[in-house]
Amino acid sequence: MLAIAGGKGGSGKTTTTLGLAAALDGPTLAVDADGDMPNLHTLAEVERTPTLGDARGDPAAVAQPYPADDGVSVLPAPVGGDADVSELLVRLSTSEADATVLVDCPAGAGPDAAAPLRAADGVLLASTLCAPGLRDAAKTAAMARALGTPVRGAVLTRTRLAPDRLADLLGCPVLAAVPEVDPPVLRDPAVEAAYARVAAALGPEEDI
């Protein structure tokens, strides 16, 4: 399970979750863990329900196919505040689902943001190339490491630049810069190529 995380809303987490999911070989499950501001289902153009909260047994039984890629399935965030997302993610991480799991994380540094970082096997940071976003991404990286979860790398969104010094700031390699393009973003060849580079840098799916 790989958590796609960043300190600020609008950092490109959801786009990175779906873009990377499509770039990986084999079946991939994209999961929205942001109950307060869920938007994975909107970007993926799937129904709002069923959700992660309905995946009590086999998540594949309730996940919806991603229309743009038949190798990707989508689980929207639970509806309402009653679901224990932390428990659901732990259950998902220990399930025998035959798919690589990518989790679109909440922004911030509170308990909701920490839950997927704690459950995941690794973290991929997503940030725009701006000082506030990068500072928050560095804080997210520090939180992941404090929870014992390794940071596998970072993706810069809405830019063609990937300054070398950012690896030192974030404490991890910058795997790709995803250019800003006109919608539909995920169908742009330059964006697809960027996420293909991220997938190649992360290695085989069993390492994710």
What would a concise description of this structure say?
The protein has helices spanning 13-23, 40-44, 85-93, 111-119, 131-146, 166-170, 189-202, and strands at 2-5, 28-32, 64-66, 69-75, 100-104, 122-128, 151-157, 174-178. With 208 residues, the chain is of the alpha/beta class. It has a single domain, classed as P-loop containing nucleotide triphosphate hydrolases (Rossmann fold, 3-Layer(aba) Sandwich).
Contiguous helical run count: 7
Shape: globular
Which bin fits the share of residues in helices? 25-40%
Q: What is the CATH architecture annotation?
A: 3-Layer(aba) Sandwich
Task: Please write the CATH class name.
Answer: Alpha Beta
Outline the low-pLDDT stretches: none
Q: What is the beta-strand fraction?
A: 15-25%
Number of domains: 1
SSE class: alpha/beta
Distance between the termini: 6 Å
The gyration radius over C-alpha positions equals 15 Å
